[in-house]
UniProtKB/TrEMBL annotation:
One of its GO terms (biological process) is phospholipid biosynthetic process. It comes from Oryzicola mucosus. Keywords: ATP-binding, Kinase, Nucleotide-binding, Transferase. One of its GO terms (molecular function) is kinase activity. Residues 4-131 form the DAGKc domain. It comes from the Bacteria. Pfam families: DAGK_cat (PF00781), YegS_C (PF19279). This is Lipid kinase.
Length: 293
């Protein structure tokens, strides 16, 4: 629906994002000229984006994040709690949520989208009380998130994912898990388990080719490959979201799933290690309003 842009926007920039220190003053000037007052409060190291959103909710009409997927993840609970609409300025390494929503990766074009005022309601995923926009993963991707440093992200960009992933792949091993969903329990041995809310993640991977962030479902897949070279064969399908067609990939769509492992394993949500197994996932339909095409 087309609306007049609200008057005051809470601006949350992540200076650690890959392009966080980029020259975006012309972008901010354009937003001001379009009628927005930008409120950018001082923040301490202990302040999360959600803390600031809750604190300033009565002083603003929308939230604009300048960062990557980690910045969005940090803001998720505040956005969900306050109901404030979200404008995204993609300044991160992968910007997977922006890709999912069709938000331009050029910050100026993304800002113009906010000015136009067209919004969509999008779902959020939840695991053990932690919200996520894109995907939560156990196994290989969680190990990757743990080893991919801020320095590597800033220096190499999305190439950094590939460099660290190649090192991890050689030493990765399968793990056992029980998957409870839709009245059934399945025992699996997998290299990675992913539960997606949106379509894109990990700097170019795709959860499922038809997934959207507003379809009311989670998309599950597990990579049950026994040799790393078989994963290499899967890479083209992982990029376009057709991995579910392979015999050694289990894939299904659901609204709730529980994953239990023999020992606690870390869970990566939107590139951040947030919690551990056992993991209870559920969909949170229409939780956030986003400026999008």
């Amino acid at each position: 629906m087309a609306t007049t842009p609200p008057k005051t926007a809470l601006l949350l920039r992540n200076p650690r994002a890959r392009n966080g220190k980029a020259a975006i003053e012309p972008v901010l000037d354009m937003l001001r000229q379009a009628g927005l007052d930008l409120l950018e409060p001082e923040r301490s190291a202990s302040d999360s984006a959600s803390d600031l959103i809750s604190r300033y909710a009565d002083q603003c009409d929308l939230v604009i994040t300048g960062g990557g997927d980690g910045t969005l993840n940090n803001a998720a609970s505040g956005l969900c709690y306050t109901g404030l609409p979200l404008g995204v300025l993609p300044l991160g390494t992968a910007n997977d949520f922006a890709r999912t929503m069709g938000i331009p990766l050029d910050p100026m074009e993304a800002a113009k989208l906010i000015v136009k005022g067209r919004t969509k309601h999008v779902d959020l995923g939840e695991v053990n009380g932690h919200l996520f926009f894109n995907v939560a993963s156990i196994g290989f991707s969680a190990e990757l998130a743990g080893e991919l440093t801020e320095h590597a992200k800033k220096r190499w960009g999305t190439l950094g994912y590939g460099i660290v992933a190649a090192r991890l792949l050689i030493r990765s091993r399968l793990f056992s898990a029980f998957v409870d969903h839709d009245g059934v329990t399945e025992k699996i041995r997998a290299l990675q388990v992913s539960v997606g809310n949106g379509r894109h993640y990990g700097g170019g991977m795709t959860v499922e080719e038809t997934a959207t962030a507003d379809d009311g479902y989670l998309d599950f897949y597990s990579l049950e490959v026994d040799h790393w070279w078989r994963l290499l064969r899967l890479l083209p399908s992982l990029r376009n979201g057709t991995q579910g067609r392979w015999d050694d990939v289990r894939a299904f769509r659901t609204t709730e799933v529980t994953i239990r492992t023999t020992r606690p394993r870390p869970i990566n949500t939107d590139g951040e290690l947030a919690t551990y197994t056992p993991a209870h996932f559920r969909i949170r339909p229409k939780s956030v309003v986003v400026y999008a095409p």
